[in-house]
Amino acid sequence: MEFLQQNLAWAALAAVSGGWLLFDFVRNQGNKTLVSPTEATMLINREDAIVVDVRDQGEYGKGHIPNARHLPMAEIARRASELDKFKSRPIILCCATGARSGSALATLKKAGFEKLYNLRGGLIEWDKAGQPVSKKRK
């Protein structure tokens, strides 16, 4: 008890951090479309998943997942048919943080795509996980 009193700020920080992690875990339990960078890599390697980057041209040019196809969010509804040949394969959507790719996922789902995944945390988490980034144009 004395330890907690002397380290109240640290104990509070640990409690808040733990609570946030638990909240995030519970919130994402029902969402099977979110994949971590590791899960995305396994889908790419084991199931020949396609990666679609929905960021704008400037963001994509600064670095993207190797072999990612570029299809900006603003054009996703109009150009969804470009992905028709991949309907039987898993498609991983990514952006900077996972927000735009979540919207793109909903758009493609309405277009009849079924094996859709959203890279949780986007390219920020991909980079943090030490995964490769390319500047080559696909």
UniProtKB/TrEMBL annotation:
Domain Rhodanese: 45-135
Pfam families per the UniProt record, alphabetical: Rhodanese
KW Disulfide bond (keyword) present: no
Classification via InterPro entries: GlpE_sulfurtransferase, Rhodanese-like_dom, Rhodanese-like_dom_sf
PROSITE patterns the UniProt entry points to: RHODANESE_3 (PS50206)
Keywords associated with the record: Transferase
SUPFAM superfamilies: Rhodanese/Cell cycle control phosphatase
Keyword flag Transferase: yes
A GO molecular-function annotation: transferase activity
The protein's name in its UniProt record: Sulfurtransferase
Taxon lineage: Bacteria, Pseudomonadati, Pseudomonadota, Betaproteobacteria, Rhodocyclales
